[in-house]
Design goal:
Strands 2, 4, 5, 7, 8 and 9 form a six-stranded mixed β-sheet that branches. Strands 13-12-15-16 form a four-stranded antiparallel β-sheet. A hairpin with a 2-residue loop joins β4 and β5. By secondary structure, it is an alpha+beta fold. The termini are far apart. It holds the Pfam family Glucodextran_B. This is Bacterial Ig-like domain-containing protein. InterPro entries: Ig-like_fold. Keywords: Membrane, Transmembrane, Transmembrane helix.
Length: 267
């Protein structure tokens, strides 16, 4: 005959609900060793930084001398600008603007340090400037001729002259473009617009009421401008390649009475 057994869970008191990590002595020793190593590395880094800050240049110079002694076959060529028989390299001008609207322009470029550079405009010598230690020279010309100006430079050392530098063409243009408006016919029914047709005497940037308009190859343009009832002021502006600006104002009036819908009579 089977025996029925009943099992009952015994209640347990004083159960710990938290756990506190308590490392052993061996783990503490390992942590102390890691901290000591970090402190040593920090001290070494600070020391090396101080040495480089105080004596870094001297160390680099001594290393350079050391490698020069053990590699005597590698010779370094040094340019001696005091030798008047030395062939001089041609200067190089920085890019200049193609068009200006005043007689002043800054001319800058590169050449061998310590040399004199003679600046020419339209084959006329304008100035002689000294090249600085970085190989840069600069001159401000205040007397550009009207029209095209050809700019170049020559390096000079005693009686020795370099070949001409690259040349740059700068056009001094102080004349404003002329705007010609051929027609500006407006529609008589809404939506109200005006077709503005015109031309300009030279290549320019055209805007109508600050909106860019395409200039055709023959310097003509056309633009459809939206109008409102009443008086409309339209400004046509042209700016040529040199920055000279011209503008022309147009006034187109749309009859406000015709533009206002008529009220229907009450039934």
């Amino acid at each position: 005959m089977a025996t029925n057994r009943q099992f009952r869970r015994r209640q347990t008191n004083n159960v710990r609900t938290s756990y506190t990590y308590k490392p052993g002595d061996a783990i503490r020793d390992d942590e102390k060793a890691v901290y000591r190593n970090l402190i040593v590395v920090f001290i070494i880094v600070i020391g090396l930084s101080g040495i480089l800050y105080l004596w870094g240049i001297d160390i680099v110079v001594k290393l350079s001398d050391f490698w020069r002694d053990i590699l005597p076959s590698q010779n370094i060529a040094v340019i001696d600008n005091t030798d008047s028989t030395l062939e001089l390299s041609a200067p190089r001008l920085d890019p200049l603007p193609l068009y200006v609207n005043e007689p002043t322009i800054d001319i800058k470029g590169w050449a061998q340090p310590g040399l004199d550079v003679e600046i020419f405009i339209n084959d006329i010598s304008k100035a002689s400037v000294l090249v600085d230690k970085n190989g840069r020279f600069e001159y401000t010309a205040n007397d550009l001729s009207g029209g095209e100006n050809i700019v170049y430079a020559v390096a000079v050392k005693g009686d020795t002259r370099s070949p001409d530098s690259n040349t740059a063409s700068v056009t001094n243009d102080t004349t404003k473009p002329i705007i010609q408006i051929d027609s500006y016919d407006a529609t008589t029914e809404p939506p109200y617009t005006a077709l503005i047709v015109g031309s300009v005497t030279e290549k320019s940037t055209i805007t109508i009421n600050d909106q860019r308009v395409i200039l055709q190859a023959d310097n003509t343009f056309n633009h459809s401008q939206t109008l409102v009832p009443g008086e409309n002021t339209i400004t046509v502006k042209a700016i040529d390649l040199a920055g000279n600006e011209a503008k022309q104002d147009l006034t187109i009036t749309i009859d406000a009475v015709e533009a206002t819908p008529q009220a229907e009579p009450a039934p």
